[in-house]
Structure formats: structure tokens, C-alpha cells
């Protein structure tokens, strides 16, 4: 395997980690508007992700940074073509981070409610946008001479892209519901498990249809195998949730998210950004990569830094592993 192919795999792994971890973050944010019945329950939902949400975003920074360093032409074309939707996503992530920190700075109920509503909106929009963005990557966008994006924002809103956005939105919310069932006590836990049944069925139907469409567009035998793994993982998550095995249900939904990302990257390879105007304009692993020397330096840096990051994040989840409920709010210092 060449170094540019290795870094394509590394970037796929980084996006998998981001969607697995930030996926349930987004899902919990969406559930603050559909699962919680009062402010106390919204606080419980937010507190389940409070210690980990910012660490989960490290995977996004790593994925974008790796793309910039390993495939600078891919990074340049992607960010110029997807500038408007990516700007919206970045603004949502900023607002979401501020909302987590500011919601408890004042005791005024209206102040807190507004920031909690901001968490809901700033979770829902990126959850949809990431799926639409990756759908456009796989299907192809207008790229012309000089690796320049020559389309308009309207070109990013086709039926396939909208379906991709719906898939990630529903799948992340399902993943988040299983996380809430795993992390909470009492009525919230029971309602989260109940909502997960419906969300899981919707995620299975949407994901199956979307990946079937993807396979028809540009799939091969490996992407077909990943498609089958996605469906099996989601079915297993539904079965485990129905059986009350919350840890297994969450693990299987995470496996479904990972298999979805694998399917998209396998369908994309060896392109990194195909052109809808013709194959000769497509960006590939070969023509969009950095120099071999740069890739070698990056590989050594990744080998040294990645274990430390994974160990630290694993330790964080271990420390904050216990379930919480509304009864714990009485001893909390955060309103």
C-alpha cells in the first residue's frame, strides 16, 4: 500500500471516529427537543455529554487537518466548493460550544432555555449537513480544469444529497437515544429506549435505501460487503435495545455508523472528489496527494501522537461512565 492510499484510510478512520462519537452528541442535542419533558430532563440529557462533547470534536479537527496535509488539492477544492454549507456547520459548532458553557452562567430561566434551544438547533443542522456533504462527495460535483469547483450551492441540494442528510440525522438521533438509555436512570432511560425502537426502524429503512442507491451509482464488492455490515449492525442494535441490553445496543449502533462511513469511502476510492463533468477532472488519491516526504513525516507523527489521544479520551469516558438522573441535579453546582 502506498502512503497516499494509507492516508486515505487514515482519514476514513478519523471520520469514522468523529461520526461515532460526535454522532451521539448530535443525537442527544436533537433529543433535548423530543425526549425531555421539562428543563430538569433537558439538563440531564445535556449533562450526559457535558464532559465529553469537546473531546469528541478533536476527531473532526484531526480529520480536516489530515486532509489539509495529506491531500492539499482535495482540501482546497472541497472547502471552496462547499464553502457555504461548511460555514453554516462551523457557525453551528461555535454556537453549540458557547451554549454548553453559557447556559448555566445565569439563573434566569429564559436565558437557560434559549441556550438549550440553541443546542438543539446547532445539533440538528450539522447532523443533516454532514450526510449531505458526504453524499455529494460520493456522487460527484462539478469540478473543471485546474481542480476548481465550478458549480453553485444549488448543485449540492439534489435528491441523493438530501437523502444522505436525512440518513445521518436519523441515524445519529438513534445512536444518541441508545446513548441516553445507557447513561441515564428512571423515566428518561425508559423513554429513550422506546424512542430508539422507532428511530432505529427509520434509520434502517433510510440507510438501506441510501446505501442501495450508492451501490448502484459507484459501488463494488467491498462497498457491498460494508453495506451488508451496516444493515446487520442496525438490526442487531434494534434487537439488543428490545432485549434491554443497552451497552450492546449502543455498540451495535456505533458499528452501524462505522460501517456506513466505510461504505461511503469504499465507494469513493480511488477518487477523493469525483467530478460530475468527466473522469479526467476528478481528484484522486494519486493526483491530489502531498509529496511522499510530507506523507512520511506525517506518518511518524501520527504513530507517536495517536495512542496518547486515544488513551486520554478512553480515560475520560471511564471516569464519567456512571448513569445520571434528575435526582443527581440537587447536588449539582450547575443550574
How would you summarize the topology of this molecule?
Elements lengths: L2 H29 L7 H11 L3 H4 L1 H13 L1 H10 L1 H20 L6 H31 L19 H25 L2 H33 L2 H22 L3 H23 L2 E3 L9 E2 L7 H28 L16
Antiparallel strand pairs: 1-2
Membrane topology: Multi-pass membrane protein
Organism: Streptomyces polyrhachis
Pfam families: Cyt_bd_oxida_II
Summarize the structure.
With 335 residues, the protein is mainly α.
Describe the structure.
This protein is an all-alpha fold. It has a single domain, classed as Formate dehydrogenase/DMSO reductase fold, CATH 1.20.1630.10. Helices cover 74% and strands 1% of the residues. A two-stranded antiparallel ribbon has the order 1-2. Helix 6 packs antiparallel against helix 7, helix 9 packs parallel to helix 11 and helix 10 (221-242) runs antiparallel to helix 11 (246-268). The protein is globular. 46% of the residues are buried. Residues 331-335 have low confidence and may be disordered.
Amino acid at each position: 500500500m502506498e502512503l497516499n492510499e494509507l492516508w486515505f484510510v487514515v482519514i476514513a478512520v478519523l471520520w469514522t471516529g468523529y461520526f461515532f462519537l460526535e454522532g451521539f452528541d448530535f443525537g442527544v442535542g436533537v433529543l433535548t427537543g423530543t425526549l425531555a419533558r421539562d428543563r430538569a430532563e433537558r439538563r440531564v440529557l445535556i449533562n450526559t455529554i457535558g464532559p465529553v462533547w469537546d473531546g469528541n470534536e478533536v476527531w473532526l479537527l484531526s480529520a480536516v487537518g489530515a486532509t489539509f496535509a495529506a491531500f492539499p488539492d482535495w482540501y482546497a477544492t472541497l472547502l471552496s466548493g462547499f464553502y457555504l454549507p461548511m460555514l453554516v456547520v462551523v457557525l453551528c459548532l461555535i454556537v453549540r460550544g458557547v451554549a454548553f458553557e453559557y447556559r448555566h452562567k445565569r439563573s434566569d430561566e429564559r436565558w437557560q432555555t434559549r441556550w438549550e434551544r440553541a443546542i438543539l438547533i446547532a445539533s440538528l443542522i450539522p447532523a443533516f449537513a454532514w450526510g449531505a456533504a458526504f453524499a455529494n462527495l460520493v456522487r460527484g460535483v462539478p469540478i473543471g480544469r485546474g481542480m476548481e469547483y465550478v458549480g453553485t450551492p444549488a448543485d449540492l441540494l439534489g435528491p441523493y444529497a438530501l437523502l444522505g442528510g436525512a440518513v445521518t440525522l436519523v441515524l445519529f438521533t438513534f445512536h444518541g437515544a441508545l446513548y441516553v438509555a445507557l447513561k441515564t436512570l428512571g423515566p428518561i432511560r425508559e423513554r429513550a429506549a422506546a424512542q430508539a425502537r422507532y428511530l432505529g426502524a427509520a434509520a434502517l429503512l433510510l440507510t438501506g435505501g441510501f446505501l442501495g442507491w450508492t451501490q448502484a451509482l459507484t459501488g463494488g464488492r467491498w462497498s457491498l460487503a460494508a453495506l451488508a455490515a451496516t444493515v446487520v449492525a442496525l438490526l442487531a442494535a434494534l434487537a439488543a435495545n428490545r432485549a434491554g441490553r443497552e451497552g450492546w445496543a449502543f455498540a451495535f449502533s456505533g458499528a452501524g455508523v462505522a460501517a456506513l462511513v466505510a461504505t461511503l469511502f469504499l465507494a469513493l476510492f480511488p477518487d477523493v472528489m469525483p467530478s460530475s463533468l468527466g473522469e479526467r477532472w476528478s481528484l484522486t488519491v494519486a493526483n491530489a496527494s502531498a509529496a511522499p516526504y510530507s506523507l512520511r513525516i506525517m506518518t511518524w507523527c501520527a504513530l507517536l501522537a495517536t495512542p496518547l489521544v486515544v488513551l486520554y479520551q478512553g480515560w475520560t469516558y471511564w471516569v464519567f461512565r456512571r448513569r445520571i438522573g434528575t435526582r443527581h441535579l440537587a447536588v449539582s453546582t450547575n443550574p
